Each structure stands twice: as C-alpha cells, then as structure tokens.
Amino acid sequence: MDPITVLLIDDHRVVRQGLRDFLELQEDIEIVGEASSGEEGVQLARELIPDVVLMDLVMPGIDGVEATRQIKAASPNTRVIVLTSFADDNKVFPAIKAGAISYLLKDVSPEELAHAIRAAQRNEAVLHPEVAARLMQEFSAPRPDEAPVEQLTPRELEVLRLIARGKSNKEIAEALIVSEKTVKTHVSNILSKLHLADRTQAAIYALRKRIVAME
Questions:
Q1: Domains delineated in the chain
Q2: Which of 3, 25, 105, 183 is the most exposed place for a label (fewest CB within 10 A)?
C-alpha cells in the first residue's frame, strides 16, 4: 500500500521540524514537502497533490483559512487538517467552512496526530474536544434555510445517521450489508442533496436536525 503523502504548512521552522521528526518514523506516512507561508503552501499543494495537508492558521500573508479554501478548490481530494494553537470561534468556524476535515490543537499527542492523518485519508474527521464542543453549540439550533431532510431516501437517511456516529465507509457497508462503493454513492448523494461540503458538515447537519442525538 502506498504511504499517505503529507504536506506541512507552518511558518515556524521548529514546529515543522518537530512534525517531520515524528511523522518520518511512521512507515505509512511520507512527508513530501514543507511550506512556511500560505502562499507557498497553496503552490506546493497544487504541484504535489498531497493526500493530507497539516495547516497552521495564523501565518503572514494568506492565512490558513484562505490557504485551505484555495487548496480544496485546486485539489478537492486533498484533506486539510488544521493544527493550531487557537480554538477561537473566529478561527474554528471559518476553517471548517473552508473545507478542513479535522481541527486539532498543538497540544495533541504525536500518536493522536498520526491517527488523525490516517483518519483523514479515510475521509474521517477528528476534532479536538474543545473544538467539537464549540461546533455543537454553534450548530445545534435548527436553521430555516437548510435543505430539508425529506429529500433523502430512507437508505440515505440510514447512512447519514451512521456518518454522524463517526462510522467509516467500511463500517457503514458492513452494518448495511452493502458494498463500500454503494456507500460512497450514498454519501455523495447525501452531500449533493443537502448542499454540504463534507462528512463533518453532514454529521453537524444530522445533529442539528435531531436525526441523531448529541452524545
């Protein structure tokens, strides 16, 4: 199996070196590039098309939110993991809306970071508990402008419930006794019908609509 390719974007050289030192010990992860600014990161992401980007948010010039937005536009299959010191609302919500799949704080353990990278490769989100709490608080109230859940078929509704419970495509396929390819089709249809960008937004939608209860 090919290693997960990772691009590091952080304006602090010491942080990048620390990340590289640990991640290079992981047999299934390969660091393919480093960038010290948002602009450089976007350019490298376009050239390298990495599987995963580790993104700092506060940088000179283009910040991490805008860099995330540009990277997702250029390479939709690249997963962006925010790795920052800040959990402020004005950082968290724009980053998620820009397309970040996961949001971690820099106090995360090396093992948790490696887990998040592997999860991102499977298109699964990992959120720091403080960030998850903020998102749930922000998005718990129903909104009148949302696409109605009635657009989903009964099977798509089942898949959405399982997404909201953090299940991977493989786990959903096993639970519903269908192929992973079928699950991927259902997930794509759900995101399209509900005008959502990714699984994280789908899970938040399911919570907001009370399709699943908050844990």
A1: 4-137 (3.40.50.2300), 142-208 (1.10.10.10)
A2: 25
